[in-house]
Amino acid sequence: MRSERRLRRLVVDGSVAGGATAHLWSVRHRHSTEESCQEVLSLHRGERTTRLVFRGSEGRFVPDGFLHPGCVALGGQAGLNLHEPGVVRAFADEAARRGLLTGSGSGFAELDGWELFPAVAATLAADG
To answer: What's the pTM value of the predicted model, to 2 decimals?
Structure first.
């Protein structure tokens, strides 16, 4: 059984030898006494970490006993499994396209993953 907190490697734009971008990523579930459950996709590149947070709320579904771990779903749209490398790649590509992964040196950013969800779901649906 794999560890849910283990960092996995995702290479974007070809091979590492060809000057590609490599991310380490992980998915975890967070509980809070003040907020609803959250699913968190963390992308690490160098010393920079970007967390895409999916907070459960009305019409925004995260694993709560009914969905499998890593699944997030928005309204009537199909769910996305954050444990699938292709889904993570689509979120990384969309975040990069919007300039959300830029910056040099060390740093940390926490972003609302739901803002990227419709574009990622459309891209994955188009890819079939």
So the answer is: 0.82
